[in-house]
């Protein structure tokens, strides 16, 4: 399909394709938060049941008459709308148009309906960006490669969070758990079925604030950064091996130890620690904060028969909602 490059051509495209749609989902980092920004590997998994859908269409009005695209937010996405967020979405739309060669002056209407709570370390900003990028590409009649989508999402993430590792940009479009290392992702080798309970603490974290707090801690003492990265890399490697060998107890221990690493760096909170303790007391195999820190969600690895009790104890400890995420054994040859 020829891309619209003028108002007239845009009108023709509008008649041929009235609405474009795009979809993405949440993610959780299993291990590797913060260290991944410095090049250490990270393990992450998609959370497909927490999805966001975007739609985009030509309104027929000129873009100049309305000062850029109009955005409508519903669901959890609406609670993340601030002037800064809207400015980021407008920049993202401009980037997609420039990347796809669409230069027409028609006004765009973009809507976003999401179930991913913002500020919880679940990748809401990356998922929103991916959904919008795919919706615009669909509207423009352009098929983007995964590499192109990643670059556009990453551009948006860097504007939102500062220096982004890229793990969110990849995992919100992934269909299986990933090992993310040095800017590339590959499927994780999983030797056992597992079940994770994700618990929302009800308080939003701040990735930017957490990053700055961690950097300040590194500057406060010689060798702190090296020790943090060494320990993080060791735990990620042990966890990856445990998962591949089908050893959930060993993997769970790595989760809990990684939480201790983040807590020691000042990135946890009393509420988060209470949820981790509740999960462990409910016989979870391991538990930790997931995401940037200073709020957000707790991730607990559970035996399937204990998952309901783990969720109950997490709610009793203050979780406002929980989700169960199944991790299934790899079907490929190991």
UniProtKB/TrEMBL annotation:
Q: What class of enzyme is it?
A: transferase
Tell me where in or outside the cell this protein is found: Cytoplasm
Q: In which pathway does it act?
A: Isoprenoid biosynthesis; isopentenyl diphosphate biosynthesis via mevalonate pathway; isopentenyl diphosphate from (R)-mevalonate: step 1/3
Q: Which GO terms describe its biological process?
A: isopentenyl diphosphate biosynthetic process, mevalonate pathway
Q: Which GO terms describe its cellular component?
A: cytosol
Q: Which UniProt keywords apply?
A: ATP-binding, Cytoplasm, Kinase, Lipid biosynthesis, Lipid metabolism, Magnesium, Nucleotide-binding, Transferase
Q: Which InterPro entries match?
A: GHMP_kinase_C_dom, GHMP_kinase_C_sf, GHMP_kinase_N_dom, GHMP_knse_ATP-bd_CS, Mev_gal_kin, Ribosomal_Su5_D2-typ_SF, Ribsml_uS5_D2-typ_fold_subgr
The answer to whether keyword Lipid metabolism applies is yes
GO MF, one term, reads: mevalonate kinase activity
Q: What is its EC number?
A: 2.7.1.36
**Span of domain GHMP kinase C-terminal:** 240-318
Q: Where is the GHMP kinase N-terminal domain?
A: 96-170
Matching NCBIfam families: mevalon_kin
* UniProt cross-references to PANTHER family, sorted A to Z: MEVALONATE KINASE
What's the family? Belongs to the GHMP kinase family. Mevalonate kinase subfamily.
Query: Under what name is this protein listed?
Result: mevalonate kinase
**Gene that produces this protein:** mevk
